[in-house]
Design goal:
The complex is a heterotrimer of chains A (about 150), B (about 270) and C (about 110). Chain B is mainly alpha-helical. Chain B has ten helices and seven strands. In chain B, strand 1 and strand 2 form a beta hairpin. About 5% of the residues of chain B have low confidence. Chain C has a single domain, classed as Immunoglobulin-like (Sandwich), CATH 2.60.40.10. Helices cover about 0% and strands about 50% of the residues of chain C. Classes of the chains: A alpha+beta (about 150), B mainly alpha (about 270), C mainly beta (about 110).
Chain lengths: ~150, ~270, ~110
């Protein structure tokens, strides 16, 4: 039986070609797999509102292996009203969930920082879950530059 | 992350960018003293800040590891580095003088080979420390860290003269399939962009350094290997006399730039 | 040898002050997506959890995945309530835990 060339296989093939030079891995996320991961984390009916989150990422990352990322969420961080979770998603990394931060009133401020890996230039999405269960969302674009002097070891 | 196909493009860029070879007379740095700039100044402001941050500079993890090794006895006599040398702080200034010619051994030693030698001669029975091993990197970083902020000041006269001359020659000699010398990049074209990088002046005052590409800390010889690969030249083995001679020339070229070890580099 | 860690906590703080804590730990965070020279997959080996407690109470926690850079750097804030010891725990995928502490004096 001949398999029909569906749109999915064509798109899949193109994605594989596009990302091949960036990694030896065959498994790569797409904006769709990121959406799947977000649905799984936040629930199928989640409708995060835009705002309240500030993401600081370099516009041009010097090296994709370690990109400094700061996230700040606008919240009083009181017992009644605080950020519970900050979730970070990538549309291109092989694992779409990059990090989950868990905060509370003891945090004082909703401010975290870490270094992330980027499988190529992409949009990073951050969702904050508040103590009242409301969800907030923001995104930031990063361009990954290619270094000239690597030894591949 | 591997970027093998991009490699060929980088190599081609090298060839196009540097069509002409320059020649320099002996013992000229080629860069006016007022323009000498550390590798740090070619980093983003973010990375520069991280290098100075005691909780963000990842290279400091090797300083801590080195401090632990420093006081750990090794060998049949149970001697540690500290047994002979005291506290690591006693090593202040030492790294500024390396590579240095060892009259007894009759050869040029860098800090790594000095520590390796110390290990086998004074801590008999202790396992030797392989070049680029985590242990040797940690001890080298710890010792070099004691001279952080102090200017390089290597001897290039007397018994070091010949080794220095060979290092200098190698720096200016076209190498590899692309026939490009160190000087063509780091003297004649520093400051220019090459893909995502800015070509530095090519000093080693931050090494051992934490390099983002490596995702770990590595020696200056590991960095030199990347340079040699870049011009498609066969790299010398880490710890080889050829690389130590080149290291001496780089140390002299750095004029009086301060040691930054452990530096952060792309 | 214990896995090296570094923690930066202000030595002193005023009661109620929000302080920033920075931590790093030596870990290669091998993704499981890379291959070695002969094409074999290098197995995943990562830290999956980090937490900071004060007086037994969790003040900050994080879950890490393969997208966190090698030698994880983590910075966060907490309210200085009283003098005491902050405890830090990094747990890898096999449940192996690296611990460290830092003391803070609150006036």
């Amino acid at each position: 039986m001949q398999s029909a060339l569906t749109r999915r296989t064509v798109v899949g093939g193109l994605v594989a070609i596009a990302v091949a030079p960036l990694s030896t891995s065959a498994a790569f996320a797409t904006p769709e797999t990121m959406s799947d991961a977000m649905r799984q984390e936040l629930g199928p009916d989640a409708r995060p509102q835009a705002g309240r989150i500030k993401i600081t990422l370099p516009e041009l990352a010097e090296n994709a292996n370690a990109v400094s990322m700061r996230i700040a969420v606008d919240s009083p961080m009181t017992a009644q009203d605080h950020v519970k979770d900050i979730l970070v998603f990538s549309e291109k990394n092989p694992v779409p969930t990059v990090a989950r931060f868990h905060l509370g009133p003891r945090s004082g401020q909703a401010r975290v920082q870490t270094n992330i890996r980027l499988a190529g230039s992409q949009t990073i999405t951050v969702v904050a879950r508040m103590s009242d269960a409301s969800l907030w969302i923001a995104s930031a674009d990063v361009i990954v530059t290619q270094g000239a002097c690597f030894d591949g070891t | 992350m591997r970027r093998a196909p991009a490699y060929a493009a980088a190599v081609a860029l090298f060839a196009l960018t540097f069509a002409l070879a320059g020649s320099l007379t002996a013992h000229e740095r080629g860069i006016p003293a007022a323009e000498i700039r550390s590798g740090k100044t070619f980093l983003s402001r973010n990375l520069q800040a991280d290098q100075d941050d005691p909780a963000a500079n990842l290279g400091l993890l090797w300083v801590d590891q080195g401090a632990e090794l420093w006081r750990t006895p090794a060998g049949t006599e149970g001697k540690s580095c500290g047994t002979c040398h005291g506290e690591p702080a006693a090593m202040k200034g030492v790294a500024t003088r390396y590579p240095a010619f060892d009259a007894a051994l009759g050869r040029l030693m860098n800090l790594e080979t000095r520590i390796q030698n110390c290990r086998t001669t004074h801590q008999s029975g202790a396992p030797s420390l392989a070049y680029e091993s985590q242990e040797l990197l940690a001890l080298t970083t710890l010792v070099t860290y004691q001279s952080r902020g102090l200017p390089m000041s290597v001897a290039i006269d007397g018994p070091a003269q010949e080794a220095f001359a060979r290092g200098e020659q190698r720096f200016h000699r076209p190498q590899g399939q692309l026939g490009i010398s160190c000087a063509q990049c780091h003297v004649e074209n520093w400051g220019k962009r090459m893909r995502g990088d800015t070509v530095s002046q090519g000093y080693a005052t931050g090494f051992p350094a934490y390099r983002l590409e490596w995702e770990t800390l590595g020696s200056s010889h590991r960095r030199l290997r990347a340079c040699f690969n870049g011009v498609r030249a066969e790299p010398f083995p880490p710890g080889s006399p050829e690389f130590i001679e080149l290291e001496l020339y780089l140390a002299w070229r750095a004029d009086r730039l301060p040691i930054e070890t452990p530096a952060l580099r792309r | 040898m214990a896995r090296p860690t570094r923690i930066l906590v202000p030595k002193t703080a005023k009661k109620g002050e929000v302080i920033e804590i920075k931590t790093i730990i030596n870990h290669h965070m091998e993704t499981g997506f890379r291959r070695d020279d002969v094409g074999r997959v290098i197995p995943r080996d990562i830290i999956t959890r980090f937490r900071c407690t004060f007086g037994g109470e969790v003040v900050f926690a994080m879950e890490l995945f393969t997208g966190i850079a090698a030698n994880p750097f983590i910075a966060f804030t907490t309210v200085a309530t009283e003098s005491g010891e902050l405890a830090f725990e990094w747990e890898d995928q096999n449940g192996e835990v690296t611990r460290a502490t830092a003391t803070i004096s609150v006036a």
